[in-house]
Amino acid sequence: MGEAFAIARRLRDLPDDALRGLLADRKTSTARIGDFFDLAEALLDDASVARRMALLDRDTLAVLAAASDGSDRQSLAARLDRSAPEVAASVARLEDAVLVVIDEDGSVRPVRAVEPVFEGWAAEGRPSRAQLQQVSTPPTPARTPTSTDTDALASERAAGTVGIIGESLHELDREPARLLGRGAPSMPDLKRLAAAAASTPEQIELALSVASDAGLTVAAGAAIRLSQGGEDWLASTTSARWSRLATAWLEAIPAALRERILAAYGRDATDLVEELSWWYPLAGEAVTTPTRAVEAAADLLGITAGGVTSGFGRLLIAGDPDGAAALLASTLPAEVSQVVLQDDLTVIALGPPTAELDVRLRALAEPEGRAQASRYRITPESVTRALADGDTAAGLLEYLESISLTGVPQPLRYLVSEAESRFGLVRVGTIRASADASADPGRSSYVRSDDTGLIAAVSVDQSLVALGLRPSDANRLTSRSDAATVYWALHDARYPVVAEDDHGAPLRIRRQPLIRTASTSASPEPGPDLVSRLRADDLGDTSTAWLAKQLEVAVRDHTPVTVQLQHGERRSTFTIEPVSLAGGRLRGLDRAADVERTLPLAMITEVRVAG
């Protein structure tokens, strides 16, 4: 029987979600697939079959090995000494992976590429078909029950990871991390993020991977940057932040390994790689590499600690992320919403600050450290930034008074007052299509100030020479750079600079614009995927294109077919061995009548494999 013929029909009958899942599972290239027959042939390719077979677990491999000569489910169960439901479940997995064909009589038959794969593996010294069918006992490590010490260590690790990722995201918002060709952040950037988060480059690289899975960062061009989802995450509670990270970790476990990995965590498997290597005896690095990544992320998030699954980790694995987050929250130190303001302009939070407090303080102060107590410092630049965001000096002092356990020190009042007096002395804006632009072509932005001495200082500042500043009058300079570049150059040179809109109102300019992820409404609509294209081009069972494609495959594979013809009011049925399809006619041998027939394609209404 023609495999491509049968598989194409089955693929065509699958729901769209199942078809997309199959494409993701098989990692099939869609470049040259124009119809369901092309897709069937891609899935039946020897290399594609070998890759998918390598990721079969031991139980499923045993059924595939036993089904080499075509057997029904009951016979397979008897041969393997396993229950019928177990064998039926394995057969279903094999059928979903397009590694077997189920004949009309219920026989389970491997696709043709399976046999040479088994033979090649045996020649390499890997388990043979016979060995795979033998009963074997999985490793059973001694179980270490979860204890209060385990949960305490796990919750401490979870909170620490949330903090490390939070500090990394804030630093990415300030300056993105450069991506190398292999898709990893550059070492200088890892060291910079590690310094900001009081961590190590190795831990930061793993933390960024977890953050990426959760949609908190996005690769834009050759850099990793904060996403809109990342900014929203920063404004949530510690337990909510952990829940998003942990749920993303769960969803990122490879689908082929998920069931075994979660079962192992449920039993507190102390060596996940050893257990998964036993369950997937032919996979090698295809299983051990992702398993190590899963283990490392689980340990980082406190899902496991010392090889034992934590209490909240168990709830997560059992499908209760809300319960897991609530249990974690009950073990964390209480968050604080008030601080100590000191004469040296530092702000001390005597405990983990609430997300609202942390976000607000970062808007008006510079973070300096986060451990048992979080520390911030208020500077002239940070106050200027807050004023540019729409705050007033009176509003800032009122807010600081409301959160302070010790009142507002006089030096801090002086600082805020001085910053307000200098606020807006230097303003940056965009040159629009106007007389300015026509009088000075090629200039994109301007710098202005009522203080001519300050403008003169800016114009001769050697640190700003790259901006190409040029005076247009005594109070104004123009630049070929955009307003954002000019603003941040002046800001970094410690000038009291404010960006303004076309009406002179203060305008906030982010150093790096947020990137919205593909799930947001701001993203462009993606083009149609392969499944949508296949459905759009599919005209039904009786379309000439569908019938012709089936006959082309039958001719190529020398597959006998039964065709039905409609001529006028009369129907005829012939079983032939097709020889060629050309000029709108099918030519084939009719063995029953011992003649060669030539049938018009236009009259053919149905094609099916003979048998």
Question: How would you describe this protein?
Answer:
The protein is of the alpha+beta class and 611 residues long. 49% of the residues lie in helices and 16% in strands. The chain contains 28 helices and 22 strands. Strands 14-15-13-12-16-17 form a six-stranded mixed beta sheet. The protein has a five-stranded antiparallel beta sheet with strand order 21-20-19-18-22. α14 (238-252) packs across α19 and α21 packs across α23. The chain is elongated, with a radius of gyration of 34 Å. It starts with a helix and ends with a strand. The model is unreliable at 516-527 (pLDDT under 50).
In short:
49% of the residues lie in helices and 16% in strands. With 611 residues, the protein is an alpha+beta fold. A six-stranded mixed β-sheet has the order 14-15-13-12-16-17. A five-stranded antiparallel β-sheet has the order 21-20-19-18-22.
Q: Mean of residue pLDDT? A: 85
The computed structural class is alpha+beta
Report the major sheet.
6 strands, mixed
* Strand ordering within the main sheet: 14-15-13-12-16-17
Q: Report low-confidence residues grouped into runs of 5 or more.
A: 516-527
Tell me the strand percentage band.
Answer: 15-25%
| Distance separating the two termini | 8 Å
The amount of helix comes to 40-55%
Tally of helical segments: 28
Ordered list of secondary-structure elements with their pairings:
Elements: H1 3-13, H2 16-26, H3 36-43, H4 46-54, H5 58-66, H6 73-80, H7 84-96, E1 100-102, E2 108-110, H8 114-123, H9 129-132, H10 148-174, E3 177-178, H11 187-197, H12 201-213, E4 217-220, E5 223-226, H13 228-234, H14 238-252, H15 255-266, H16 272-279, H17 285-300, E6 304-305, E7 308-309, H18 311-317, H19 321-331, E8 340-341, E9 346-349, H20 355-364, E10 366-370, E11 374-377, H21 380-388, H22 393-403, H23 410-422, E12 426-430, H24 435-439, E13 445-448, H25 452-459, E14 470-473, E15 476-479, H26 483-492, E16 497-500, E17 506-507, H27 530-537, H28 544-557, E18 561-567, E19 570-582, E20 585-590, E21 595-600, E22 604-609
Parallel strand pairs: 12-16
Antiparallel strand pairs: 1-2, 3-5, 4-5, 6-7, 8-9, 9-11, 10-11, 12-13, 13-15, 14-15, 16-17, 18-19, 18-22, 19-20, 20-21
Helix pairs in contact: 1-3, 5-7, 6-7, 10-11, 10-12, 10-14, 11-12, 14-19, 15-16, 16-17, 18-19, 21-23
